[in-house]
Amino acid sequence: MKDTLYCIGSVLLSLLLALVSLRYITHVWLLAFVYSFQIHFALAAIVGCMMLLLLRRHWYAYTLLTIAIVLLGHGTIMLREFAAAPSDAGTPPLFRLMSFNIEHENFANAGRIADFIIASNADVVNILEAAPLYAQIARLAAAYPYSIGCGAETDECDTLVLSKRPFTDKKVKSLGELWRNRLTRSAIDFDGVTINFLAAHLAKPYFDDFQTDELVDLKSAASAIEGPLVLAGDFNSAIVDPRIQRFMRGTGFQTVFPEPASWPIKAHSFGISIDHVLTRPPLRLKSIKRIEDNFGSNHFGLMAEFTIDR
Asked: Which residues form the Endonuclease/exonuclease/phosphatase domain (predicted)?
């Protein structure tokens, strides 16, 4: 019986580790979901290997354990690769930004979400899948008189950007060919410093190669902007995803380590970060915190504070 369990476990763990390891050989978009969970699956494989060793001390179980540890270690290294140097703790934030995918069918909680936005005191708010807030726009305008999306610049109500300060520049663009008007570009003056913003909502990574094309467009949009830049939104992929890795290296964006887990909500802090807030020097992230109430969404929102190297 032990030998049978050992063989079954060895086969299952071998398949799992092989799927995760394919990222180092070729790009398979069907496995993009697996790549984002590399650390989680590596941890699961380590536990599985320890169980195998309890059944039978064999060289193959030790080999699988070694591979799982390597995958875990490299996954952690990849998360740390883009961690920005922390700003001085005593430096007051220049501005605060909220980024939140509220889920496009979440109409029952629209009033609560609008109340939270108004009370948040964030200077800039990015709302993705914003259709539930369409009826709340007039009320939000009292606290955030400047907006992009849901009737301002575009009739689409997927990406909504709210600001307490006037925009010095604003534009709505599309990413790739799957969805329209899922990228907003704006600029806001904060006490004599112009900060540029990109709000993006990418396709799911297992929708063929659409996300790859969107990242190419997003890289072009970011490269065309000079000066301090914030990119925030729902990438539907973790930083460890190979395509997100290439995008980060090609654009010079930075984030914090560890990023707050934003999905799935049932996993809480043990989930993955598919919603990101990224900066490019001289702008620095002072902090990124998860909004603990998901307000009925399938994502947790993020609240970030920024400083700048003068």
From this structure: 98-293
Q: How far is CA 288 from CA 25, 141, 227, in A?
A: 33, 25, 21
**What pLDDT, in 10s, does the model give residues 251-260?**
999 999 999 9
pTM over 0.85: yes
Q: Check if the beta carbon of residue 145 is closer than 8 Å to that of residue 153.
A: no
Tokens at 69, concatenated = 């540890």
Distance between CA atoms of 53 and 5, rounded to whole angstroms? Answer: 11
Q: What is the pLDDT, as a whole number, of residue 310? A: 67
Pairing relationship of beta strands 179-190 and 167-175 according to DSSP bridges: antiparallel
Beta strands 302-308 and 95-101 are antiparallel
> E strands of the chain, at which residues?
95-101, 124-128, 146-148, 159-163, 167-175, 179-190, 193-201, 229-234, 275-280, 283-290, 302-308
Domain spans, the chain: 2-80, 95-308
Beta strand spans in 23-163 (E) = 95-101, 124-128, 146-148, 159-163
Question: Which positions of the chain have pLDDT values less than 70?
Answer: 87-89, 310
Is the bond leading into 205 cis (omega within 30 degrees of zero)? no
Q: Quick one: CA torsion of 7, 9, 13, 15, rounded to 10 degrees?
A: 60
Domain at 95-308: CATH architecture: 4-Layer Sandwich (3.60)
